[in-house]
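Section handout 9: paired folding examples.
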Amino acid sequence: MTFLLRWAASAAALLLVAYLYPAVQVESVGAAFVAALAIGLINATIGAVVKLFTTPIRWLTLGLFTLAINAFLFWLATRFVDGFSVEGPVAALIGAIGYGLLASVIGSILGANKKKD
């Protein structure tokens, strides 16, 4: 059940980012759910490997390079999902930051971020 709540929170966050920031475009609610799933899978697989190999750079930049990695992964999801697009690298950065923040807030509101006892 928690997975479904997180997925719904992520899709809602993606729709909200697209609404607030026109450089990120989502054509439909269905595309938002598919894009949220793609972003999650990309972050869990490719993202983990990229973050592992870039650990020294992330240490040197005090973690700021993680923003660039997240923007790249956000953009990468647009290549796999029809109906989800980002207009450029700055839009990917702003979209990734907004998506992460909103998904966290919406997930907290829905109770998807609670740890099981």
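Moving on to protein 2 of 2.
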Amino acid sequence: MVIAFIGSVFSPYYHWAGRREPENHVAFNVALYGPGGACWAMTERGRGSLSRGPDGVRIGGSRLGFDSTALHIDFDEMALPWPGQRLLPSRIAGSIRLVPDTVTNDSFALDPAGHHHWAPRLPAGRVTVETDAIPGGGWNGHGYHDSNWGDRPLESDFAGWDWARGRTAAGDTLILYDARLRDGTERHLALRLTDGALTPVPAIQRQEMSRGFWGVRAGISCDSDATPEMVRALEDSPFYRRSLVQTVLAGEKVAMMQESLDCRRLASPLVRLMLPFRMPRRVSS
């Protein structure tokens, strides 16, 4: 999982600065998971570490760019200690290549006023990861790339949301987005990628899963006569969870990468004070 942030929505430094000058609050988040280990890196940097153009973005020693054939990511970051894996910060470097099955121009407003948008630009593709950061040196598999942008803090409009993506046995890609707005209304998106086109499909009722160590609510669409199964917890923080989940949609078992965000927790002053331990800031490149 790699995320390039410009005006990082999770950054306590950006919040404390009054959310001004997003180019002065940039980060390249790298989270890699393998059967023998995992690593996490997210160092916030200032504007001197940022360069961007029509074909990509560079933040510090890491870059992300798209050419006519693939999305290319090169990362060189400092990984923070991971319980059970490493005791001290250590540099991690590697590359990721995503060859898309299709490229879409679809984008979706996540709130009625259109302050927040999401675009699944490369909803499916073949990914190759090469790095010495985890045992085995990398892997090949199925990948995805999207983009999010907005003009207000997430916690101004959302109580939280769940997102999930997976593949069916027939090779179709399913993407689920369940946003819970602060006014109590909900925004449900369920999309299927078939033959290169994203099409809406009927949303299935969300079921809550058991809470993690920090008590964050998480849920995923699942048939009423089935129960979603937690396969592996990947991240469990005071405001965010990431998991590999097996759910049942219209009678079919589907393994999905699932994420849940609690925006009310994110807005907590106590949580913001905790975040620098996972998101240090380094002004120089």
